[in-house]
Amino acid sequence: MFRNSVRLLTLAWLVVTASGVIQAQRQPRAELEKFWVDFDVYRESTKGMLLHIKMTVYDMKSVRSAVRVMFFDEDNKPLVDRNKKYFTTKGNVA
Fold first, then answer.
1. For 39-86, how does the pLDDT look when each residue is reduced to its tens digit (9 = 90+)?
2. Which of 11, 15, 16, 88 is the 20 to 30 Å CA partner of 30?
3. The model scores a pTM over 0.70
4. What DSSP character marks residue 87?
5. Beta strands in the chain (DSSP E)
6. CA gap 72, 7 in Å, rounded
7. Taking the CA atoms of the chain, what radius of gyration do you get in angstroms?
């Protein structure tokens, strides 16, 4: 069931905050080329998933950015975090 939920991953598009002056005619942007998941991956003896994102960014020199991934169930409801390791301010898995 969890794997089905992962297929409904929503990639919250790049959260971009300017850390410098950006020329008005050149807007920072990113193109998501590919997104895939490896299941049953172990890191420090903990089983989980490895998320891969292939993207190209343009006009983002000196621009702070981040990629944020949110998880939803089959009813499009956010998954609630239970161990407080990776979560949003609302307590959802991120």
1. 999 999 999 999 999 999 999 988 888 888 889 999 999 999 999 888
2. 88
3. no
4. B
5. 10-18, 29-43, 46-58, 63-70
6. 9
7. 16
